[in-house]
Protein backbone atom coordinates (compact mmCIF):
# COMPACT_ATOMS: atom_id res chain seq x y z
CA UNK A 1 0.00 0.00 0.00
CA UNK A 2 1.09 3.52 -0.48
CA UNK A 3 0.62 4.32 3.20
CA UNK A 4 -2.14 6.88 2.76
CA UNK A 5 -4.05 7.48 5.98
CA UNK A 6 -6.66 9.64 4.31
CA UNK A 7 -10.27 8.83 4.88
CA UNK A 8 -13.22 10.19 3.00
CA UNK A 9 -16.72 10.93 4.17
CA UNK A 10 -19.08 8.20 2.93
CA UNK A 11 -20.82 7.72 0.69
CA UNK A 12 -18.21 7.73 -2.07
CA UNK A 13 -17.13 5.32 -4.78
CA UNK A 14 -14.17 2.99 -5.16
CA UNK A 15 -12.85 1.72 -8.48
CA UNK A 16 -10.90 -1.49 -7.89
CA UNK A 17 -8.47 -2.34 -10.71
CA UNK A 18 -6.90 -5.80 -10.39
CA UNK A 19 -4.26 -6.63 -12.98
CA UNK A 20 -1.64 -9.11 -14.02
CA UNK A 21 1.22 -7.47 -15.94
CA UNK A 22 3.18 -8.72 -18.90
CA UNK A 23 6.97 -8.90 -18.49
CA UNK A 24 9.10 -5.81 -19.08
CA UNK A 25 8.30 -2.14 -18.70
CA UNK A 26 7.86 -0.95 -22.32
CA UNK A 27 6.91 2.54 -21.15
CA UNK A 28 4.52 1.43 -18.41
CA UNK A 29 6.27 3.28 -15.57
CA UNK A 30 6.35 6.57 -17.44
CA UNK A 31 2.68 6.27 -18.42
CA UNK A 32 1.67 5.33 -14.85
CA UNK A 33 3.37 8.48 -13.53
CA UNK A 34 1.65 10.60 -16.18
CA UNK A 35 -1.75 9.09 -15.32
CA UNK A 36 -1.20 9.76 -11.60
CA UNK A 37 -0.49 13.42 -12.32
CA UNK A 38 -3.49 13.69 -14.63
CA UNK A 39 -6.00 11.92 -12.40
CA UNK A 40 -5.02 14.06 -9.42
CA UNK A 41 -6.44 17.06 -11.33
CA UNK A 42 -9.65 15.25 -12.34
CA UNK A 43 -12.83 16.74 -10.79
CA UNK A 44 -14.32 14.33 -8.25
CA UNK A 45 -11.09 12.37 -7.67
CA UNK A 46 -10.43 11.77 -3.97
CA UNK A 47 -7.31 9.59 -3.84
CA UNK A 48 -5.67 6.29 -4.72
CA UNK A 49 -4.01 3.33 -3.01
CA UNK A 50 -1.98 0.70 -4.81
CA UNK A 51 -0.11 -2.54 -4.14
CA UNK A 52 1.79 -4.84 -6.50
CA UNK A 53 3.84 -7.96 -6.18
CA UNK A 54 5.49 -9.80 -9.07
CA UNK A 55 2.22 -11.35 -10.20
CA UNK A 56 -0.72 -9.24 -9.11
CA UNK A 57 -1.48 -5.54 -8.88
CA UNK A 58 -4.39 -3.92 -7.07
CA UNK A 59 -5.14 -0.23 -7.42
CA UNK A 60 -8.13 1.35 -5.72
CA UNK A 61 -9.11 4.87 -6.70
CA UNK A 62 -11.70 6.84 -4.77
CA UNK A 63 -14.29 9.15 -6.31
CA UNK A 64 -17.09 11.50 -5.28
CA UNK A 65 -19.56 10.21 -7.86
CA UNK A 66 -20.27 7.77 -10.68
CA UNK A 67 -20.24 10.76 -13.03
CA UNK A 68 -16.66 11.60 -12.03
CA UNK A 69 -15.63 7.99 -12.69
CA UNK A 70 -17.31 8.05 -16.09
CA UNK A 71 -15.59 11.32 -17.00
CA UNK A 72 -12.20 9.83 -16.10
CA UNK A 73 -12.88 6.76 -18.23
CA UNK A 74 -13.65 9.08 -21.17
CA UNK A 75 -10.52 11.22 -20.72
CA UNK A 76 -8.56 11.09 -24.01
CA UNK A 77 -5.12 10.56 -22.45
CA UNK A 78 -6.55 7.88 -20.17
CA UNK A 79 -8.16 6.16 -23.17
CA UNK A 80 -4.73 5.99 -24.84
CA UNK A 81 -3.27 4.43 -21.68
CA UNK A 82 -6.14 1.92 -21.57
CA UNK A 83 -5.44 0.80 -25.16
CA UNK A 84 -1.69 0.49 -24.49
CA UNK A 85 -2.56 -1.58 -21.44
CA UNK A 86 -4.64 -3.99 -23.51
CA UNK A 87 -2.01 -4.22 -26.24
CA UNK A 88 1.22 -4.31 -24.23
CA UNK A 89 1.11 -4.09 -20.44
CA UNK A 90 -1.52 -6.47 -19.09
CA UNK A 91 -2.09 -10.18 -19.43
CA UNK A 92 -5.50 -9.56 -17.88
CA UNK A 93 -7.35 -7.15 -15.65
CA UNK A 94 -10.71 -6.62 -14.03
CA UNK A 95 -12.46 -3.49 -12.83
CA UNK A 96 -15.04 -3.32 -10.06
CA UNK A 97 -16.92 -0.18 -9.09
CA UNK A 98 -18.37 -0.06 -5.59
CA UNK A 99 -20.25 2.40 -3.48
CA UNK A 100 -18.66 2.84 -0.05
CA UNK A 101 -21.37 3.45 2.48
CA UNK A 102 -19.36 2.98 5.63
CA UNK A 103 -15.71 2.78 6.62
CA UNK A 104 -13.64 2.22 9.71
CA UNK A 105 -9.99 1.53 10.49
CA UNK A 106 -7.53 0.59 13.19
CA UNK A 107 -4.14 2.11 13.86
CA UNK A 108 -1.69 0.99 16.56
Question: What order do the helices and strands come in, and which of them pair?
Answer:
Elements: E1 12-21, H1 28-39, E2 45-52, E3 57-63, H2 66-74, H3 76-89, E4 90-100
Antiparallel strand pairs: 1-3, 1-4, 2-3
Helix pairs in contact: 1-3
Give an overview of the whole structure.
The protein is of the alpha+beta class and 108 residues long. Strand 2 (45-52) and strand 3 form a beta hairpin. The relative contact order is 0.30. It has a four-stranded antiparallel β-sheet. Helix 1 runs antiparallel to helix 3 (76-89). The chain is globular and about 40 Å long. It has a single domain (12-100), classed as 2-Layer Sandwich (Alpha-Beta Plaits). The protein has three helices and four strands. The mean pLDDT is 92.
CATH topology: Alpha-Beta Plaits
| Biggest pleated sheet | 4 strands, antiparallel
| Strand numbers in spatial order across the main sheet | 2-3-1-4
Strand content of the residues, in percent?
25-35%
SSE series: EHEEHHE
Amount of helix = 25-40%
In DSSP terms (H or I, runs of 4 or more residues), the helix count works out at 3
The poorly predicted ranges are none
What oligomeric state do these chains adopt? Answer: single chain
**Rg computed from alpha carbons, rounded to a whole number of angstroms:** 14 Å
Number of domains: 1
Structural class label: alpha+beta
pLDDT averaged residue by residue: 92
Organism: Heyndrickxia camelliae
GO molecular function: monooxygenase activity
InterPro entries: ABM_dom, Dimeric_a/b-barrel, Jasmonate_Hydroxylase-like
Pfam family, one: ABM
Descriptive terms for the model:
single chain, 108 residues, alpha+beta, Alpha-Beta Plaits, four-stranded antiparallel beta sheet, 3 helices, globular, Antibiotic biosynthesis monooxygenase
Amino acid sequence: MNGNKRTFQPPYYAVIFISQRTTGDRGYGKMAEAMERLVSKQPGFLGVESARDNELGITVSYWESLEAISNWKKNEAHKIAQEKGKQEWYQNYSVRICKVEREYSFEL
